[in-house]
Amino acid sequence: MDGCPALLLLLALGLCEYGRGGYKMTVKFRGSSTTHPRVGQRLELECYTAKEDSGVFWVRMDRAGTLHFIVFVSSLARTTFEGNEKTSRRFEAGRDSRFYRLVVKSFTPQDEGNYFCLMNSNQVLYFSPSLPAFLPVTTTAAPTTQGSTTEEEPSPTTLDPDTSKEKELDFFCDIFIWVPLAGACILLLLALAVTVVLCQR
What we know:
InterPro entries: CD8_asu, Ig-like_dom, Ig-like_dom_sf, Ig-like_fold, Ig_sub, Ig_V-set
Order of helices and strands: HEEEEEEEEEEH
Organism: Pampusana beccarii (Western bronze ground-dove)
Region (Disordered): 142-163
GO cellular component, one term: external side of plasma membrane
Domain Ig-like: 5-128
């Protein structure tokens, strides 16, 4: 019974050890000319891992903050898309050395979001920075008439990209840390209750 707090501490430390510091993954558009996707365009993304791995997951976070699994690419370049499918109508994926590719065959507003690649190595989760892929915003000028002045509408405030990326990463970390930690704590409490009942007999 005295070892229970120490066990809880070790469990929490083990689950909270995720991919920060010491190891980086990078994700970028393939082709230096690509800055924003366009409707109907073939969009290619690339994820680089600096060490041997067992495969990479591609994930998209939409504007509402919902995560969407796209594909798992194994170290042998085998792909598993959503629904345990080997191929996809919307995506292509593959591996070339330590570069993992994701291709959106024909970009649509449905594909907008922040793209991540993830890797699980030795029970530690590593993740890349997010790569925003949003269609360019088109603005139309308001018509003006002679002799009348129109007040300019205040432009909507835009979030600092660095701040929004930090919030996305924090949200992402919360999912992969607190959900398993909560589950493990519940199991630990159940085991503790069973132990107490058995010891009282």
